[in-house]
Specification:
Length: 145
């Protein structure tokens, strides 16, 4: 229940009007859980909360930049094909319906990267990164989206 309240306050605290950019995105994961390569269709399924566990049984934990950030706005467009507002409403509905656990939302890429590196099963989207604490996931054979 406290996840619902946390998500609600996160969504209320985000600023609106950030324009999506053509920024390059990198998918990163904790060393435990995610495979080294995914198809884009599977990536979208994971980030929409449709896949709850990795093949090794580890729970999938989604990490996203807040939609008020440039990377978060770009993620909303490229992965979800939604605006930031639509993405926030999408997750709010899923959580209130009990269909998925709320993603962890971050203000900075370094906070997201640290969370992913410390959380088994975590997967996140960030800008191009050289963070060696996380595994970069190839999407359709490419290093960036």
């Amino acid at each position: 229940m406290h996840y619902k309240l946390l998500l609600f306050f996160i969504l209320l605290s985000t600023a609106f009007g950030v324009q999506a950019q053509d920024a390059e995105l990198t998918v990163i994961s904790n060393n435990k859980g995610a495979p080294s390569e995914l198809k884009m269709t599977m990536l979208k399924s994971i980030f929409k909360g449709e896949k709850q566990r990795w093949p090794d049984g580890t729970k999938v934990i989604i990490a996203l930049m807040k939609t008020s950030t440039p990377i978060g706005s770009t993620t909303s467009k490229k992965i979800y094909d939604m605006s930031g507002d639509e993405l926030n409403k999408f997750w709010l509905a899923l959580v209130f319906q009990g269909k998925a656990q709320a993603p962890a939302f971050f203000n900075t890429e370094s906070d997201l990267e640290n969370f992913v590196s410390q959380t088994p099963g975590a997967i996140g989207i960030t800008g191009l990164t050289n963070n060696t604490n996380n595994k970069s996931i190839l999407i359709d054979g490419k290093k960036s989206l």
